[in-house]
Amino acid sequence: MFYRASLQAAAALASLTVLAGCGLLSDSSSETDQQITVGTTSSPSTLDPAAAWDGSWELMRNVFQTLVSFPTGTTSPEPDAADSCTFTDETSMAYRCTLRKNLKFSNGEKIDAEAVKHSIDRIRTIKVKGGPLGMLGSLDRVETKGDDEVIFHLNKSDATFPFILATPAMSLVPPSEYPADKLRSDGKVTGSGPYLLESYKAKKLAELKKNPGYKGFADRKNDGVSIRYFDDSASMVAALKAKEIDATYRGLTAEEVVSLEDNKSDNNGLQIVETVGADIRFLVFNPRDPAAGKPAVRQAIAQLVNRDALVAKVYQGTAEPLYSMVPKGIAGHATSFFDTFGDPSEVKARSILTKAGITEPVKMTFWFTTDRYGSSTAPEFAELKRQLEESGLFEITLKSAPWTVFQEGFTKGQYPVFGRGWFPDFPDPDNFIAPFVGKESVTGTPYLNTEITDELLPSSRQESDRGAVSKQFEQAQQILVEDVRLLPLWQGKLYVAAGEDIGGGERALDPQTVMQMWELYRKTSW
């Protein structure tokens, strides 16, 4: 999603190494030992789910419940506040959920069908700009039957709807404390999740304590979690080394990852572990631009870009080359751009341009944002400029702007070529294709391709078995290669640093890369 909080280039959470012979503390252990402190550079922009389509999800996953969610080790939504959920028809246009019995919010209010309807309907009523309303485009209406049955009627087939319900934006809230027509404004949270938000200081600290009334799948391995929000990663890493925090998620730069990996003996036994991430970076070409609008120009750029050199020089191996919009780790991932263009080649690029009658160096302007995707963005675009100009086929001017200015510029179609990032709402290939095509592409540049929008996506959304839709997405990605309207560059790896006495993190990351804090614990020995 483009509205998620600012991402450092190699930032993230990942699994924490579990060392052999280490167990959980017993119930007799002190409360101090069972309290975990986690640091991050991504603070919530809101405490109300109806406004959340960003890094606020990190906190919300731990204090709210959703009808369905991602229990540890799963990649498909499973019941959480619901006892069961299923499509009632073969066309995936009606989704019915039956609630667990005797569920209550932390204020004692009953979680019933009306509370569920209220939670979803207020998103559509309030319509927060940049909020999660855009995720509910396929929802027609919410129907309740009795106290414990909710039916979501869709206006078109959408087998991804359960994934949407699993996002923290669809968290359940009590009607008495969350107005139907406006956001909650008292700075408090009332949910039914694994933890209670005991106290909160914006951009400083969130104190989570076990919710004694919680009924759900989470097996809480600690008594509570303190989340400290840092302004920059340097101060966060310093706090980790000084043992002021136990672990980090979201915020490590490439340089910090490399430093921690290379100097383990000097870092008080800190762990640094990586896994594959799902955040991607790519170039967007504006078809209205005289140069970027020419297929041969886009194809020549695709033929020249050296992703291996890019990730090695700029990201020092903390990212990996990406050859399709669907990243590794997501069903339907392919290597379509490599299969078509192969290794970077000046000879092939020159031939592409020559056949199109282009014999002079192509002058173009590339835009990037200065404050959205981390400090490595400027060096990344400098490297792209170097690669393209080294061929003698292009003359590239680089321009940049803060996010607010940058966003306004690309939505008005002012930029010929610009860099964007995407972090998924849910782990399905649909979420890496659908947002970028059609009249309302989230890139701000309409991308009309009826084969994708009118045939492949609707066909895939009728299939509730998401493992059976690879063919549609492979075909869609091949179309993207032929058009080169979007050029994938790299996908991030995910990292976490933690003290050697912290375990459980190998289970703490859900498929939305949101940390499930309840999995973290302090080891008795290591």
Automatic annotation (TrEMBL):
A Pfam family matched in the record: SBP_bac_5
PANTHER family (alphabetical): PERIPLASMIC BINDING COMPONENT OF ABC TRANSPORTER, PERIPLASMIC OLIGOPEPTIDE-BINDING PROTEIN-RELATED
GO cellular component: ATP-binding cassette (ABC) transporter complex; cell envelope; periplasmic space
Family: Belongs to the bacterial solute-binding protein 5 family.
Organism: Streptomyces finlayi
SUPFAM superfamilies associated with the record: Periplasmic binding protein-like II
Localization (cell): Cell envelope
Name of the protein in its database record: Peptide-binding protein
Swiss-Prot/TrEMBL keywords: Signal, Transport
Solute-binding protein family domain span: 77-440
Gene Ontology biological process: peptide transport
